[in-house]
Amino acid sequence: MSVINQRNKAVVWDFWQRMNFAKPNQIAGLVKKTFHKNVDWNGSQPINQIRGTDALIADFYEPFRHSFPDVKLTADILMGGESQSQSGEGTGEYWVSGIGYLTGTFVHDWIGIPASGQKTNIHFGQFFVMRDEKIVESYVIFDTLAVMKQAGFQVLPPALGREGGKVIKPYGGNGVLLTEQDELEGRQTLDATMAMLNGLIRYDRARDMENLDSMAQHLFWHPDFHWMGPTGIGSVHGLEEFNDFHDLPWLIGFGDRPSTIDFEPKVVEEWANLVKASSHAWACGTASFRGTMASIRALPERKKSYRFATSIGTSAKVESRFKTGSLSIWSTYSFSWM
Fold first, then answer.
1. Percentage of the chain modeled with pLDDT above 90
2. Which residue has better confidence, 164 or 299?
3. CA-CA distance, 338 to 3, in Å (whole number)?
4. What is the DSSP letter of 245?
5. E strand or H helix at 141, and its extent?
6. Which of 242, 184, 189, 237 is closest to 215 using CA atoms?
7. Are 117 and 107 in contact (CB under 8 A)?
8. DSSP designation for 44
């Protein structure tokens, strides 16, 4: 597993680094070298699904580079591993995932957003499915609301959490994992994170309303944790802010999600300090979120498991005090309104 995982991470890392310095006439070659010719690429609204490298180049990479000609990618997290079943067995499917920023001068309109002519930071989260050292599937969410806001358009009510600037990097700045990590400690970290996620599903809006005690999140979060949300929600510090500024408004808006959710770990890095986990979509349909009508669309089975993982995925940092049962979790959610 380790050799395959290391090679897969190297493929993605090499692609990101080469794209940072690629000339316009080199983009197509890099994409075709890295992605399978029949890649299934999925982006946030309104880009959505793109099939095949030719379409990927024409419909995403070339327009994006046209809008942000000097764009550079900075990764805060890069990790990979073999997909795991709920029993903990490997499935033979390998993933690489990352979180970071795309920063460039916004000189031409992009996906309907008027160009600002200013430097723009686009927070993103991306999952890659790897096979034979090629990307065969990709799921990426861009914080497009942040692009709108930086261009001068406030499309949602002011966030309850803090907005502006960039999210905090993982503690120690060691989120890019290019070397082999400890698989056992990675499993322990994943188990701790999954316990936290399963606590979330205990909430029942009809029963609990504004009482969040049923989720027992105080058992999982360190008192000094930071949670970085997308534009429209913002970042918070500590459990009280997390409940007041994100969790409670979200649950009141989308609290009719199923009472049982099949959480499935999809990317397991062998390291104890970083883990990504994904879940099935919590709710479908339209609801009011802080006075704004928002909807989560029902997705095909494959997308429901993975694309939504990017949007409501968790990147968690667990300190060494994990072994005494106290977690310090660094979390960032990146999603788009659909």
1. 48
2. 164
3. 38
4. I
5. strand 134-142
6. 242
7. yes
8. S
